[in-house]
């Protein structure tokens, strides 16, 4: 414990000498939350992620007013009415490289390499790529979101936070994540309805999200459509760079995809309607993933877009944010 306290103090001096960027949110006509109480910021320790308290409320989980973007094969439709009976807290930002490093050094955590990275328009698994060396053109900065972490790595991190703080940290449930990402909206994206889809001649996405944009086409050459704008980043961007949603949450869409607590299923049928994660007693191989990343096409950069990955996967566009009980 003495080692942990020392590391936390050192981290405060090094990583939090300057507060992470927090651009002022410009209210959008579609981004006014319809919830029971305002959000508030909290932090349980100097090296802990900043959290936003999310009020209780009701919403439709899944594709709502999605046009032709909703993916029925992934269970986005029909939408499920959900009542969030309890407020909760969720990371204001995605977990950063610096925050993850404190955890690794505190308990000498052994996180493997073997991370999937971009390679000539596709993805290749490389044994020498890991969270501290994901193979980007330039090394990641401390305030960029950590990548190349598996679901097990993320779970180990939140378990450590729980021990350090005495609070119940965990990964967000899929329902909590979408509720938080929407920020009170019902449009496909919290920054607009259909003005950032793949048919948009000029997308709003790059004001709010780090996605697969026009500048990335020449670099990566993915076969799918790109957002018709330029967000200024090929790979990860420092957290807080883009505009937040109405809950003051950053990068809920774009930057990196985010692990969820839930076991993945291809339908919402049978899912708890109170916001809890859907988990199986015997565990599961596939875990839910949400949010899109710097490598994600516009059609999959939506609040309701669902995805899944093998629990042990590490990939250079895949990270996480934390949640906490209140």
Summed up, what is this model?
The chain has 326 residues and is of the alpha+beta class. The chain has a single domain (2-21, 33-325), classed as paralog of FGE (formylglycine-generating enzyme) (Alpha-Beta Complex), CATH 3.90.1580.10.
CATH architecture descriptor text? Alpha-Beta Complex
Number of helices: 6
Biggest sheet features: 5 strands, antiparallel
Total number of distinct structural domains: 1
Q: Please state the structural category.
A: alpha+beta
Order of helices and strands: HEEEEEHEEHEHHHEEEEE
Which regions are unreliable across 5 or more consecutive residues at pLDDT < 50?
A: 1-34
Kindly state the percentage of residues in helix: 10-25%
Structure report:
The protein has 326 residues and is of the alpha+beta class. The chain has one domain: Alpha-Beta Complex (paralog of FGE (formylglycine-generating enzyme)). 18% of the residues lie in helices and 16% in strands. The chain contains six helices and 13 strands. β6 (115-119) and β7 (122-126) form a beta hairpin. The protein is globular, with a radius of gyration of 18 Å.
Q: Which features would summarize this protein structure in a list?
A:
single chain; 326 residues; alpha+beta; paralog of FGE (formylglycine-generating enzyme); 16% strand; disordered N terminus
């Amino acid at each position: 414990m003495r080692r942990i306290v020392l590391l936390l103090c050192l981290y405060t001096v090094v990583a939090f000498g300057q507060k992470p960027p927090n651009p002022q949110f410009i209210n959008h006509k579609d981004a006014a939350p319809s919830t029971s109480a305002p959000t508030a910021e909290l932090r349980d320790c100097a090296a802990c992620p900043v959290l936003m308290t999310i009020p209780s409320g009701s919403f439709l989980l899944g594709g709502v007013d999605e046009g032709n973007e909703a993916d029925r094969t992934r269970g986005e439709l029909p939408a499920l009415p959900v009542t969030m009976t309890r407020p909760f807290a969720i990371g204001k930002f995605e977990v950063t490289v610096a925050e993850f490093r404190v955890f690794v050094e505190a308990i000498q955590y052994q996180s493997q390499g073997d991370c999937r990275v971009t390679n000539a328009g596709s993805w290749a698994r490389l044994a020498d790529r890991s969270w501290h060396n994901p193979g980007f053109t330039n090394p990641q900065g401390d305030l960029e979101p950590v990548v190349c972490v598996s679901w097990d790595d993320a779970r180990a991190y939140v378990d450590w936070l729980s021990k350090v703080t005495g609070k119940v940290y965990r990964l967000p449930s899929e329902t909590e994540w979408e509720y938080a990402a929407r920020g009170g909206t019902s449009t496909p994206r919290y920054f607009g309805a259909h003005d950032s889809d793949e048919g948009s001649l000029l997308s709003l996405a790059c004001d709010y999200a780090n996605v697969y944009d026009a500048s990335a086409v020449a670099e990566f050459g993915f076969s799918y459509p790109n957002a018709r704008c330029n967000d200024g980043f090929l790979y990860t961007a420092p957290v807080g760079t883009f505009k937040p949603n109405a809950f003051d949450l950053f990068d809920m869409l774009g930057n990196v995809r985010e692990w969820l607590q839930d076991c993945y299923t291809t339908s919402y049928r049978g899912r708890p309607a109170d916001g809890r994660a859907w988990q199986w007693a015997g565990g599961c191989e596939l875990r839910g993933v949400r949010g899109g990343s710097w490598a994600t096409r516009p059609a999959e950069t939506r609040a309701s877009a669902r995805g899944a990955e093998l629990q042990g996967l590490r990939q250079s566009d895949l990270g996480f944010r934390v949640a906490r009980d209140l």
